[in-house]
Amino acid sequence: MSLYKSQPIKIYNTLSGEKENFTSIHEGNIGMYVCGPTVYSNVHLGNVRTFMSFDMIFRYLLHLGYKVRYVRNITDAGHLTDDGDVNNDRFVKQTRLEKLEPMEVVQKYTVYFHKVLDLFNFLPPSIEPTATGHIVEQIELIEKLVANDFAYVSNGSVYFDVLEYNKKGLNYGELNNRNVEELLANTRDLDGQNEKKNPQDFALWKNASPAHIMRWNSLWGEGFPGWHLECTAMSTKYLGEYFDIHGGGMDLKFPHHECEIAQGKACNGSSPVKYWMHANMLTMNGLRMSKSTGNYILPMELINGENTFFEKAFHPNIVRFCFLQAHYRSVLDISNEAMVASEKGFNRLMESIAVLNNLQAKNTSSLNIQSWRQNCYDAINDDFNTPILIAQLFEGARYINLVNDEKETLTQDDLEVLKNTMHSFLFDVLGIKNEKANDNNSDKLEGVVEMLIEMRKQARENKDFAMSDQIRDQLLVLGIQLKDGKEGTTFSI
Ligand code: AMP
Ligand code: ZN
């Protein structure tokens, strides 16, 4: 039996504002779309946090035995800083700044994005489509929207008609629980307003001015697509008109995802997504991490220590652990103290993992490993509550130490369950890179430490305690801890 049948999950659905029991549209299969990066500059740590939340969710759904098609796009055109013209096109701006072709900008930052994801041990999505690769699909959708009277052409641009959408009995603002008047009050006076019937209408296609170098031919003249439409085009193409999960950062709830719902309903007559999921922001100095305000840190700067914010460099595993120690729907404020605390906890956990292999089985179990295992599942089944899951893994570490100290006992079967559960949650679900498993030198290192343990034993037998202490202390300096027990000496790295 697939694990997902015995481990039902609850997901907080932004659309209903409630935690709901999750059931996939097609039994055993899940379609998940997550808005990807706008590749006009380096992704910052805030972006990484959002993508990491969905990487963990993807990993857990796979762990449960679902067949997941995970689509995460690359926005390589059309994401305007405003709803305006060429001066607001992020790509065109960057192209000028760096004196590069638009596709050189896109390539440069896509490569960086992938490097960062590799560094943090992300699983690749099933499909990673680009906006520029789906211009034809976007044009087709616009034609449909115009034909169905949901959009109008103005000056070579095409806008979605929000009031007309509502007149047809649909409900713009449902994701954000706002009505059109409230949205109107929050709409800034943006460029292009004079082309629109109403300020809350949004661009599906923008007429390209002569200076705009990213342009495509269309029925309405040369132009480029609006940002919201690309996600509708790519999600429906690969996942269908109605799919299971759509995710992104909290800041995309409005207007981006509101517009996606409107586009989906207007094109296909029904809401496109069953569960809308939004990840919360990473803050620094209490303020949202963002490129535009300068309040950001790049992933590589944190890893190599070349920054003025953190006192030292941190391993990618520590960053991952620290991020997942917060729930994906909570704000996380990154700080030196938080990273140092995570590092300490992480090392403690990994020390117990190292001991795990050396535990001796007994005839009876004095600990209830099955119920601890279910506690781990209960935590993550409850809207992916990774902080509680990690607390349960620390409980597992405590069990390991108790068994190691011979204060508690476990049978061989229970030892296996303990080991499998610790390993699958830490490495498969939370995505911690198992350096030991991947490191070809780890066997050699173990051999060397075993040799030193043997030499220390001989030194003790010869009553050369100075030598035996020196071996133990020097290994400790290198982070290798020896532990003398009844069965001999063991070590943890
Ligand atoms: P962008 O490249 O600006 O489209 O952003 C890519 C993803 O990162 C989106 O899902 C954003 O919501 C998310 N994001 C942007 N800033 C932050 C932040 N400070 N913390 C967490 N996620 C963020
Ligand atoms: Zn999107």
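^ adenosine monophosphate complex. The radius of gyration is 27 Å. The domain at 283-429 is CATH 1.10.730 (Isoleucyl-tRNA Synthetase; Domain 1).
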